[in-house]
Amino acid sequence: MRIVVALGGNALLRRGEPMTADNQRANIRIATEQIAKIHPGNQLVIAHGNGPQVGLLSLQAAAYTSVTPYPLDVLGAETEGMIGYIIEQELGNLLDFEVPFATLLTQVEVDANDPAFKNPTKPIGPVYEKAEAEKLAAEKGWAIAPDGDKFRRVVASPRPKRIFEIRPIKWLLDKGSIVICAGGGGIPTMYDEQRNLKGIEAVIDKDLCSSLLAEQLEADLLVIATDVNAAFIDYGKPTQKAIAEAHPDELERLGFAAGSMGPKVQAACEFARHTGKVAVIGSLADIEAIVQGTAGTRVSTAKPGISYR
Description:
Layout: E1 2-7, H1 21-35, E2 43-48, H2 51-63, H3 72-92, E3 101-103, E4 107-109, E5 122-128, H4 130-140, E6 143-147, E7 150-155, E8 162-163, H5 166-174, E9 178-180, E10 187-191, E11 197-199, H6 206-216, E12 221-226, E13 232-233, E14 241-246, H7 248-252, H8 262-275, E15 278-283, H9 287-292, E16 297-299, E17 306-308
Parallel strand pairs: 1-2, 1-12, 2-9, 3-9, 4-10, 12-15, 14-16
Antiparallel strand pairs: 4-8, 5-7, 6-7, 10-11, 13-14, 14-17, 15-16
InterPro entries: AceGlu_kinase-like_sf, Asp/Glu/Uridylate_kinase, Carb_kinase
Family: Belongs to the carbamate kinase family.
Pfam family, one: AA_kinase
């Protein structure tokens, strides 16, 4: 099978952990131990988040004022390279020496007229007191929003339209390579009035980009790995139930929160609808069972309704 695995941020950094290189490597080692189990007989593409890593670079830039901070697209490219390097090394240590790897910096086109640009919602970078946030917003043209009792910069999160490197990703897969790409939802880019491609200050949702990636690669399975073993109704309550299988129409009616499971459900539903294939939301620890069809929340158009476990 051709499988796209979208790693959640917890695969790179646990909540509350210091963002050291050693901690990230240790977490990636745990993740790759699971991914290695499904390599035999399958073609693998690995996507991943990069929010904490971009946030750290933003903090470092804020501390060094001698140069203008690098834009988000450049920070995204830097983190794609860093995270891909560690995944390649840790997974390579587990697989046969002859297995080839490639990490691709992945440019993803967005629409300049996407309504998200008029309503920035994605928080990035450090937190500020209100007065400082307002001062920075005036100086730099930022949009800001409350974050608890502090404020943060917010940027647009437009939908991904096109993955520019899709052809080389296919070529690499056809040659037996494991490909790491579309990190952090890819590097957001758009065409200017002269039809020149340029980066843009935005953040693309990682799961929606992974869904588009899997669709364009004609993948057989999309695995959206997160820190729970399924999508739940009434999550955290005594009445919570894990969803075993669902048609996209039924799953979307449940109204998952935009800030947590919502984007993962949307991504899984879009892949299932557009391809007729299966998307699964579940825990990386269950990835063997997910591939075998016995774990996670399986989203498919094969049959109507919804079932629980």
